[in-house]
Specification:
Keywords: Membrane, Transmembrane, Transmembrane helix. This is Prepilin-type N-terminal cleavage/methylation domain-containing protein. By secondary structure, the protein is mainly beta. The chain is 9% helix and 39% strand.
Length: 590
Amino acid sequence: MAEPRNGIHRRAGDAGFTLIEVIVALGIFVVIVTALLPMFVGGIRSVAQADHEGVVKGLLQQEVEQLRGLPYRVSLGASGDGTDADVDLLDLYYPNVSDLAPVSVTCPGVAGFSMSDVPSWKGYVGAGAPAAARCSFEPPGAFFRTVVTRTNARLGPIAIVRDLQFLSGGTLSSPTPTPKAPSATYDSAHATTNYPPSTQVGVTVSVVFTDRGTTKVRSLFSQIEKRDAGPTLVTTKVDAQAVEISSLAPGGATESLSGGGVSLAGSVGDISTANVSLSGVVARTATGDPTTSQFAYGAAMTVSAPPSVPSLTPVDVTPVWGVSGCTALLCYGTSHTGPDSGGGVLTDGGLPKAGSSTSPLRAAITDTGGDALRFDNVGASTAVGDLAKVVVRLVGTAPGASTIPAPTACPQGAGASARLSGAGYLDTVLHDGSETLRDTAACASTRSAAVGILPTSWAPDGVLKVTINRSFAWCTVTGGVANGGIGLSATVQVSNGDGTYQPAVPAQNFVLADAKVSDAKGMVSNFITGWSYGAGQTPTPTGGQVRAEVPGIQVTTAPTRYEADGTTKDLDSSVVVTLGAASCSSESTS
């Protein structure tokens, strides 16, 4: 047995690795490491990128929440001179439309881009600005751009771009809000021009940063709605209805026919608004079932501002009946809506206007024929006595001369000669020498040629004829002091029972119980069961508010048709005719 060398015992297999084995192992190791290295590097980069994206996302969310936490709009103080501090969202991020952004900017990803140039982008970008004025990450439409640069501990130098734009509220048919541009005079730093076009904004916040030499942009969009309701400073309303006729049709449906309808409303609060609705004539038959109910109208106009509409185009509508004329229960002729002699609907500068005192907005029936306005609730049933199937009809050719002078705040207007019409306007101006106090003026008026009620064989134009020479209601607030007035001038004619008529008498002197057709035909109350003359009460202003109303004249007829048995009067066939209703209200607390 051999002695161990140096006292160390060795066994078989303890000879170690050969040089070749070591080299092969090292080679395999290098190959594996080389193969895995991109994965290691990619993982490291992914972690770094995820870290950057997380930081950017946090910045974006932080910016949006900061904007969302601001008051939407704070009314200027009593000074109204524009010296109030910038404290609300619009003051800070949509101050005006006069500070214009550059017409061309070099966006990230384009040769020549420099982070140091981004602060110079700030300003208003109009809807019609050239394409070069905005970057691809910015929204279409008008917006105001603000920019701030800072150094982030994780990202290094960054730029935060905020694009604020006004949005419409959206509708059921078009739920996606659309951009709205403010008026050309919009300025949040002035009491009379700091009224935005809507109570909703779209905010696009973008962070521009550099990642390993590459400029990147990340954006976040959000909508902010005004929730902090401010005070309403001005409210003005105007309503006029020259005629409204209603009854039940033979089948039980509700019939109504109205002409000369005007509804105007203006307000100043968080925003300045003006709304207009004009209807020359409206015909309805309501059964309670949408599939069988009918609705028709002649000339109509509906306008809501903002945006302002400086000039309204008149609308005239002529119905198509064929050569034999109208054969329906409800008939109407050519009608008209629009301003008397130019004008529009404005809200600029917190001063809502609709029409003017010299050019009121009018809704009228201008047709000269016999079917201009006629109401039939008899149809295929049998009419009572000698009544015609057409129980109410516009028979006169023009209104009579008013016995009441037109007040300064409520002139007649150039279109007052229409056969039947309602008209009105509302106006708001700054009180002389004031930047915050607003004066208001409003007027509602109606006129109508003779309306024949219950035509018969012996009274072809009706047992009773009522003419509205003019009815009006006016409201003003000047220097915080309200005032108002009303007027109703109308005449009544009673049939003689032989095709002729008694002389016209002032409507306020007509007494139904005393009125007589003739000995043969009897009293008017045999045909007309209700008469109401409503000239209204003299308005009683309270501080800076006033309401004036003329209810008008209301006539209720006896039943006009028999039931199916041909002998029993159908009590549901009475007709109610209202003529000359007009009202206005105005309040100014600014």
